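Task 17 of the worksheet. Students: predict the tertiary structure of the chain below and write it out as structure tokens. Keep your answer in the requested format; marks are given for formatting as well as content.
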Amino acid sequence: MRNFEKTRKQRSEHVMEMLAHTPTTDILSQVEKASNNGQLITHVAITPEVAHDLLTLNKDNRPPDYTVITRYKDFMLADKWFFTGDVIRISKTGKLLDAQQRLLAIIESGIPQTMHIQTGIDDEAFAVIDSGRTRSGADALALAGYKDVNVLAAAIKATIYMQTQGMASSRVFRNRVSPIQLLEWTRNEKNMNLMQSCVDYAIKYLHPKGKFLSQSSWAFLYYMTSNIKGAKQTATNFVTLVASGENVSLGNETSVIYLLREKMQSITAERYVVSKISTDLKIRYFFTAWNLYRQGQVITKLTIDTRSTKVPKPV
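Model answer:
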């Protein structure tokens, strides 16, 4: 494993070196001129030099997939890569939206290929373009300039499922959230500011203290409770105590947190429980405990309704 990781790191550094270079052809001038009207530049000879230049437009794209690059390169070297009307897509703001795997394969193989270049595409089209592997919500968020995109995407998806279907994402099998829906959700600045603060706290504090929940689950749960009107500080106190377990005990207002932590740790220890079921149970216990905590109840046993497909709504 160590050798593989080292090799991957070396290859990544090599790719980054290729991307940071001074253009040597006029392809970027052609692209800029065509972008004024969103024109298609047809039958372009993509040489390694042209590929280098186009990759300088590869801003905020996902990391290169070495498996795909190698497969493409092998096809090219074996003279089995054919022109099928392949299109390289470039956004209105001058970003390369796809084709980085193909361009890197051309550089690696040293063999020019013919492709079209489509300019003037909306940046958000990245979310629905498939190039080598399926675009994910995290890919779409990365292009939009967000950080911690894997955690952020999972937390937003869980929030959308909870708000629209009343379920945890682990129980949703239909009407899955698409990258486009994810981007639409981010347009609400108030929601995004709160979500990003929740993600930051989940990564920096909650998950390190409470390993029984993933970073994205912490972010989602913190967001859902913080988003209740007038409950932000209560939510912060609650998740902090649940994560750390500091000064919680039975027989007082923190008994519900004590019992919730016991449940979380118990479910985590039961490794035979399927991951999705485990996550669903933890979310149900969390929101049940939150509602009891908000009511100031002192309890000796924490139970949930396992018959309902709906997750308890935090209030």
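Marker's comment: Residues 161 and 250 are 33 Å apart (CA to CA). Residues 1-6 have pLDDT under 50 and may be disordered.
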